[in-house]
Design brief:
Layout lengths: L1 H16 L8 E2 L6 E3 L2 E8 L1 H7 L6 E2 H6 L3 E5 L6 H10 L15 E6 L5 E3 L3 E5 L4 E3 L3 E3 L6 E7 L9 H5 L4 E7 L2 H8 L4 H14 L16 H18 L5 E8 L2 E8 L2 H22 L7 H12 L5 H5 L3 E6 L2 E7 L1
Parallel strand pairs: 4-7
Antiparallel strand pairs: 1-3, 2-3, 3-13, 5-6, 6-11, 7-10, 8-9, 8-12, 9-11, 13-14, 14-16, 15-16
């Protein structure tokens, strides 16, 4: 029996070792890319080994749906009930741009799953409300009835530090969801952790898209007619292309002759769940800061090789330029900016 167990382990271990995010399982194809104006996307295709390894992953509710269905509560730490917690965070938080206004903490919020769902949060998503709109700066899985958890955030609304009328109506909570921010905002928040760079990138993208607001909020993009018409054209083009491709678990996004980042997920279904919001991130970056897309297959393959060729250093390498979300030993989402 011991000999049999040993033999079985020598068979099983190599199979398990090749079932993750590596160059054997995940490929781009030279003949398959899609280009519209300033944006080119290369789909990342998974083989059957990868698909089989992740087929039993549980379903996750995206943050946008959780907010819409009131399954999640996001609040300022510095409310009257949480004043002591806020003061402690003000003393201990070392993020650049950290400040405390006496009744709030800029770079940390409370987040709570009040439902029976399991909710998945992506770094870069923007929530509206509180004392200022924020971009979430970390990936997170929230289990059902999670209780309050801290989540790292950055301000994307430079000129407000008071509860808006909408937030007051929503019992001083964050009442809405905007989208996934541009790749430059995601990078400034998640990798560089630099509030000044976040504000700078927000100001640039809103100015370039005629999306001004009194408080300088990133979410002013939601009301810009010109921007939304351009965004709609990008989304329409790529939706018709990407959603028709089988076994796609992510994309590498490019503008001009460079890669601006990639997102990969554990299953095609998870990628489809987040596709529309990620398309907003890529498209807004291309519209605001891009040029005509000419990025070659060789450039993209070289970029992907740095992520996939060495799994032993993958996590440390990715976290220098992005983020990895893991749950129960499996990687749910890998992103680079």
């Amino acid at each position: 029996m011991k000999i049999l167990s040993f033999l079985m382990s020598t068979i099983i271990l190599p199979i398990a070792s090749v079932a993750q995010y590596n160059a054997d399982n995940l490929k781009i194809r030279e003949a398959v890319s899609f280009t519209y104006k300033n944006l080119r996307l290369y789909p990342v295709f998974a083989n059957q080994v990868f698909l089989d390894e992740h087929k039993d992953i549980s379903k996750y509710t995206p943050l946008q749906k959780a907010v819409a269905e009131k399954k999640i509560t996001v609040t300022e730490i510095g409310s009257a009930a949480h004043a002591n917690v806020a003061n402690e965070h003000a003393r201990s938080n070392t993020l650049v741009g950290q400040s405390s206004g006496g009744s709030g903490t800029v770079n940390t919020l409370f987040i709570e799953n009040t439902s029976n769902d399991t909710i998945m949060i992506m770094a870069g998503e923007v929530v509206k409300g509180g004392k200022q709109d924020r971009v979430l700066a970390q990936d997170m899985v929230l289990l059902p009835h999670s209780g309050r958890k801290d989540i790292a955030v950055f301000c994307v609304e430079h000129g407000r530090w008071q509860y808006s009328e909408e937030s007051q109506k929503a019992n001083h909570t964050f009442y809405g969801y905007s989208n996934v921010s541009t790749m430059s905002v995601r990078k400034a928040a998640v990798v560089e952790k630099d509030q000044q760079k976040v504000w700078q990138n927000v100001a640039e993208v809103t100015a370039k898209n005629s999306a001004s607001s009194q408080s300088g909020s990133y979410t002013a993009l939601d009301t810009s007619k010109k921007y939304n018409e351009e965004l709609k054209a990008y989304l329409s083009f790529f939706n018709s292309k990407l959603k028709a491709e089988p076994n796609v678990i992510g994309v590498v996004a490019c503008t001009g002759n460079k890669v601006i980042g990639c997102d990969m997920f554990a299953t095609p279904g998870m990628f489809q769940q987040y596709f529309d919001n990620l398309m907003s991130s890529y498209s807004t970056e291309a519209i605001s800061n891009g040029t005509e897309a000419t990025t070659s297959y060789q450039t993209v393959q070289s970029y992907l090789d740095k992520i996939l060729l060495d799994e032993s250093t993958q996590e440390s390498d990715v976290e220098k330029n992005g983020t990895i979300l893991k749950s129960r030993g499996k990687k749910l989402h890998l992103a680079t900016f």
